[in-house]
């Protein structure tokens, strides 16, 4: 059986360690000065070298080389024994499966026995945060007054779960995520040694997918190399599940063209083919993130094929930055939403519908799509603002401009969330149009269902929020607004705005 790459290329000396130089230098100095602590706490993300450095420490303190600055030498019997996993005085404990008080008591009873081979017994307790509270309490006395031949190294990915009493008894070292360029250099070294053919951009993708964990990066390289093919960007994206699928492209195109049926069909086709809904939502978010990077001038950070990047550039030009950010937030919620577990497609369907119907988080903003004899291209779908005048329309002069309410609309949701009034906060977030007619605030909703949820109690609370913020008291009336082809009652039925709506346009905003 072949050995996993992350085990085969585990550093056997200080010079081979990638990253964590701040920890490395401290340990080397402690070895050279013979000032090794009795207990260490290594904390940081997984795969960043905590166990590796713990093993190197165990090797160094027991090394037989007379020159302390050259420990570990990797030549003496004890160094070789540690490297070959046969050093009896190196005890590795997985706290995830040995987390009870009896396990710690057994450790405490055995710790007083002298080392079998070397000068020190090294106890590495991995995932130490998994110990139970009684187990931590049982460990405290030993950590405070260990026998002179014992050294503890506690490793954890969740330092916030470690009791303060334990932290105070250890020398603490924070491990950082390994920089991408250092991971890439390490992967290139391994690829050359193992005769693995890999493109640099594919190795960079692997490094970023590992999120700063060297072990994860080496494992991903191992996985990809097992395909027997040259590791290209396309192969890496396919195997790692980061490739932009045709479903994502179809979905974004359907949003741009306003074709709900085509978008839903793309979602259902993907799910029927076995695609996980949350995975698809994450792919959509990742694609939208790429559009955001392109819009911000960071196209070089988008890792994908040339063909996909060309399509992304076209989509990035057709959408506004606000559109992209709104869509990212919506689909990101779908990626973490568990409410649709009984109906796998529900979260994605809701997210897709919201991108078509909901204009923005704060106030009425929608996209105007004029009907033409030929279907408009994505570049033709640009935002417009329709202004109306109460005097020209014959409507009663507003007590306060609608624009003033729009300015404070976002703050209402923040206030309601603090009051745990989530229902009203969600309703206000669903408003697609705002107008003031005389002493009445008209709120437009995308559907009868949403409008029906705005009951008298909710209207009174909303009116109170406006009174507190702007000093005016308004009645509230709700309507179904912005339905395609439907002219709101306060808009002149024979005017220019009505004509635009009949031609497929939508009211985006109401300005005084």
| Beta-strand content bin | 5-15%
Taking pLDDT < 50 over at least 5 consecutive residues as the criterion, the unreliable ranges are 358-394
CATH architecture of the largest domain, please? Answer: 3-Layer(aba) Sandwich
Question: Could you say which overall geometry the principal axes of the C-alpha atoms support?
Answer: elongated
Regarding quaternary structure, how should these chains be classified?
single chain
Number of strands: 8
CATH superfamily membership of the largest domain, which one?
A: P-loop containing nucleotide triphosphate hydrolases
Largest sheet: 5 strands, parallel
The class by helix and strand makeup works out as alpha/beta
How far apart the termini lie comes to 76 Å
Task: Specify the CATH class of the largest domain.
Answer: Alpha Beta
Give the radius of gyration: 31 Å
Percent in helix? 40-55%
Q: What is the CATH topology descriptor of the largest domain?
A: Rossmann fold
Compute the number of structural domains. Answer: 4
Q: If you average the pLDDT, what whole number results?
A: 82
